[in-house]
Amino acid sequence: MGYRNLQECVLDLERHGMLRRIAVPLDPRLEVGMVQRRVYQAGGPALLFTNPVNCRFPLLGNLFGTLERTRFIFRDTLDDIRRLVDLKINPFSLLKHPLDAVRAPFAALHLLPSTTTAAPALECRTTLSQLPQIVSWPRDGGAFITLPQVYSENPSNPGFAKSNLGMYRVQLSGNRYEPDRQAGLHYQIHRGIGAHHAEAIARGDLLRVNVFVGGAPAMTVAAVMPLPEGMPELSFAGLLAGHRIPMTRLPGRLPVPAEADFCICGVVHTGKTLPEGPFGDHLGYYSLTHDFPYVEVEEVYHRKDAIWPFTTVGRPPQEDTSFGAFIHELTGPLIPTVVAGVKEVHAVDAAGVHPLLLAIASERYVPYAAERQPQELLTIANAILGQGQLSLAKYLFIAAQEDAPGLHTHDIAAFLSHVLERADWRRNLHFQTATTIDTLDYSGSGLNEGSKVVIAAAGPVRRRLAGEVPAGMEYPDGFGGAQVCLPGVLAIQGPASRQERGKGDALMDEFCRFYGERDMFGGVALIVICDDSRFTAATLNNFLWVTFTRSNPATDIYGIGAETRGRHWGCSGPLVIDARTKPFHAPVLEEDPAMERKVDELAAPGGPLHGLY
User: Fold this and answer.
1) Which pLDDT band holds residue 381 (cuts at 50, 70, 90)?
2) Average pLDDT over the chain, rounded to whole?
3) Fewest CB atoms less than 10 Å from the CB: which of 259, 420, 432, 497?
4) Distance between CA atoms of residues 412 and 400, nearest Å
5) Residue 179, preceding bond cis, omega within 30 degrees?
């Protein structure tokens, strides 16, 4: 069955040629992370750094660096999970496959953790400063645990049944944290630990937390699974691991996975925060310094043969892209059972996941109408935006499956073309303002604050999308360099933005007025104003990243021929999105040039890492 600990996994991957040991001394500050990112981009193996500089423990990187390797790691249990998912979707499938009725309950036996007194995880003690001090990006505020499993229980109803296991970043050093005593705990909105913390605050209690690192690979995946509130991740970990997760109870503290590599035990004090960050994050920008809770550390344990797993994040795709793809494989088929009428939903990794959702759903409200209009689609869109972490989306494009039964959201270019051909900008834009967005997204009106827009398209084709820049293109002062990103989509370079947070930009209104009397955009549905039009149009991923990470719908969407009717805003000409970098946006992640040269030399002919990346 599945691996019981990280050591079994490492040995098995090495036997199958999927892991490489790196004996070259590499620095956990910048160097190790840069090598890991290079190897990920090359589609390379998992990496065991056996001689990291000034570090007692070996480091394991790129473990989940390819979808194929992730499937291999969980190859013993994927069929069981698929059976259980299928039973949830279609109980009548048992009539066709009666043996599944026998197999499924055996898999379900792994849902409940077991208890044990034999715990390698508690064999040794250490301190925070002796843990690997991995710094991924030059402007990071300190060392971080990048694959933490943060465990908490409901203070009013303790136990496994109401527990939460989440991947919330933990800052080990830097800022104003007291060395070896305090660690930053950054959790974003709509995370399970928030409910536990709120309960502790209401009771006036401390919130006990344990931070696990390593252990069975299933624990790491379980910590990032978007499970419904109240469904314990430990149960899913057991299902994915193919065995009950053995837990060891500590007097007066929370339980610890017996096979974990490391465990930090501590408490979060009610109402106390400290500055946390900056940190190079998965949107491709730094998340900045803000006050967050912290853990008052009581003990740090580790096993004798401990291995420290890590990842680095940055502009997608990165290793967490494989996480997302694997999770979609497991949970994607369940989406229609959660939101009626939905065929599929795709959180677009290249756009940073939360900024952009694509969906296909049914439009059946008036099946006898001469022309289909988005109606049921809007009901479904609101339901999607009410589901867990999907609620953090900024842009939701939703199309009717009846218009194109073969359409799929993962063919992003074809999907966007389908929507842009049909969208009526006078009526198909639906805004939600002064609402919540992803904590890591700095395009909004404040931390956790911004807006959303639903773009719903149904019915016949309304425009044929142009594949080239309009002939005789004219520009207002300061704008120019139009490039085609996709059929019907232009990127136009604009002057540096001076926009204030939460406000629109009068320059963009002037841009739209300039074209109000000029009929020159036949076949153009969308114009993106950006800092560098050539970069934006160079690849689909560039277009997605620039457009949807650098704009806030309520303040950055404009239109040519715009008007408001009955408080509904729309436009008769192309939609315009201001995706320039604003003065209040977070800095883009950039490599350290000197470290880049050093890492490149390692992989040059004759170098110790030649052929790896």
Assistant:
1) very high
2) 94
3) 432
4) 15
5) no
